[in-house]
Amino acid sequence: MSSDGLRPMDVVAFGQRNPTNRMKCLHSLGAFREPHVIIWSKDVFVNREFRGELCRFQIHFSEAVGDLISEDIEVTGPAKIEKFTALQKDLYAMILRIHGAGVITLRVPPNVTVRSNRSTATNVHNTASKVFQFIARRTTSQQII
Fold first, then answer.
1. pLDDT tens profile 116-128
2. What would the CATH number be for the domain defined by 34-137?
3. How far is residue 85 from each of residues 10, 14, 89, 122, 131, measured CA to CA in Å?
4. How far, in Å, CA of 116 to CA of 37, rounded?
5. Which sequence spans correspond to the domains of the chain?
6. What superkingdom does the record give (predicted)?
């Protein structure tokens, strides 16, 4: 059943303002063939400035996946992963330490984890996340008085 080229699942998911909820809704309705992933933070928004030293992130998958490890996450710029924890099989938490100023990007590449709990399709890997990019304004130099 389609309406103006939209599937019913797209119409239902459109009502979800939160991208994580939208992704989970689409997954529940069978819109995805493989696990999808979103990087999210309350501390900083995409393409915005961050002036702190530590920044918290969540990595949400559309469904349960196999073991994701911190080394799987691509981090560029003046930052490193300080802490990485699996909260659930579809949710991971990460703390990033900022050690300078510049553009920082985070990305979960494709094929780093595998779908869990599905006997019908084995070895189904995740898609890539969108790049989460922000600007660190932290400086490591001290002011001279």
1. 866 556 678 888 8
2. 2.60.40.3710
3. 32, 30, 11, 25, 20
4. 14
5. 1-31, 34-137
6. Eukaryota
